[in-house]
Fold:
Amino acid sequence: MLINLNTNDAEANLLYAAFSDRLIGIVPKMGNRHGLIAGATGTGKTVSLQVLAEGFSQMGVPVFMADMKGDLSGVAKEGKLNKFMEKRQAEFGIEYGFQAFPVEFFDVFREQGNPIRVTVNDLGSQLLSRILELNDTQEGVLTIAFRVSREQNKPMETLDDLRKMLTYVSDNAQELSATLGAVSTASVGAIQRALLRLEEEGGDQFLCGKSFNVMDFIRTKDGKGVINILAADKLGNSPLLYSTFLFWLLTSLYENLPEVGDAEKPKFVFFFDEAHLLFNDTQKAVLDKIEKIVRLIRSKGVGVYFITQSPIDIPENVLAQLGNKVQHALRAFTPKDQRTIKSVADGFRENPKFKSEEALLELETGEALISFLDEKGAPSMVERAKMLSPAGQIGPITEEERREIITKSSFYEKEAPVVRQREVEEKSEPKVKEEPKVEDKSSELLAEVESIVSEMQTKVDGITELKNKITEMRSVTEDATEAKDTIKPYLSEAKKLKDDANGLYKNVVKTVGASTDKNLTSLLKKGEKKYDDAEKALDKLKAEYDAVFKKLSELEKKEKKEDEKKKKWWYNLFISILHIFVPSSKKVLKKKR
Ligand SMILES: Nc1ncnc2c1ncn2[C@@H]1O[C@H](COP(=O)(O)OP(=O)(O)O)[C@@H](O)[C@H]1O
Ligand SMILES: [Mg+2]
Structure:
């Protein structure tokens, strides 16, 4: 059977996602019932996200995704068969088809994509005061500022406009207080300080006039839904701005879209990679609002999918609304991890063929426990399945390719200082931009090397995560014995990762060969450094493991000794009692001994 990957089979009418003993997929009309992709680092979450996003696009459903690590841009380019996929093709008895998808790149900071902006007025006083964490009095003052702006017909576009308006309000406090309510200068001061904070996070880039129409995200091209990719690596460092942005996006979509009831397929689908960043340190009021909007937006035909390491990163009330679940492997080092695994396993409708709790620890990369909603909206029985692979490229496209898409976009603004070259790691290295004459073949190689480098990075991340877990584990000695057994397979996994990285690196060297192309040699250098990092991380990991192991065997020895001591004590006690009650036993026992 040939499946053009992610093609929704007209007969089955499914968005194919994975394979167990058959193809498993999301029921299109349940696509707006939200979803979750979870799992430890390197287990395949981002790739699974790509598979689902491509599936929706293929169905003509436009998609929005926040790209936290810059590894989703590959969806704009046709993918290639690799060893991993070859193996799965044979296993599944299917053949992958590859294709590129229509993509728009956006960036609030305007470096890696076209701008998305909103005016202060459009954001509104309520949303703004939540983001600024204002109290009721301060919120009242902000509302007055908005009201004055409306009454005087002086719309506020930028943060600067708002600041000026606040100064005006403060200067005319007495007069305004008489008609609109109390205005204290202390409150104005507090708002100004909060604005400064928002500005420090780059909020002035986002709040700077000329509002973006969110409905522009909802477009199709040649029958495929446009995949809107928001560069969010920098945004992830500004939780306040990130949650503001998400908040605004969801709210404006909610306000602009009509009710659709039960549609054949979603109108629009959101994906938020590294979603824990969204919920970390986000104040309760914003969380409540996110939760509410996630609940309500379903009726507008919008599906929201969260991608995160552990499901417990997501507030319970939100989690409960996520019906389509792809759960990759979890690690179990600490008692807390074990509790998480138990609760994740309990959250599934059990399959008699396997124990979810055990499977969660055994899943390979790109393998997952899957439960999608059935036609009636009930969670289906959990399946252990292997994810399909994307039809687009895994890993990022090159800067050139990205820039071409950005400048050709209808959102491109020539005069705006867009598309600044992204910083290339070492300053001493020549920037890719400075080498405009790259031959066709070289650029292909470049892309390959870049994807390999990013793959290596994932592996390094994986190793680092393992290391952190071990460090954490060492502080909980009583659980150490158990943890030791858990950790062994991960060490060999890490070793395998290192070998993989080594293999990849050798491949790169072979591919690039004796090329004198500066781009290639510089990338090769980068690859080399990544590999070194991986190796160093592994060495450290091994040292940590050895230390834990040593500590444990000491612990075990100590325990054994104590056990023997205890046994002797009980034996002596028993004998003494026996002697008291059965004096004649003395002789018998003596003989026996
Ligand atoms: N379904 C898949 N098909 C092909 N390769 C995959 C698949 N899932 C994972 N991989 C490989 O594993 C690597 C790590 O996956 P990734 O999705 O980046 O992990 P995570 O986001 O969980 O850290 C990818 O770069 C890719 O090479
Ligand atoms: Mg990822």
About this structure: The pocket of magnesium ion (ligand 2) is lined by residues 45-46, 69 (CB under 6 Å). DSSP finds 20 helices and 15 strands in the chain. The radius of gyration is 29 Å. Residues 4-11, 417-440 have pLDDT under 50 and may be disordered.
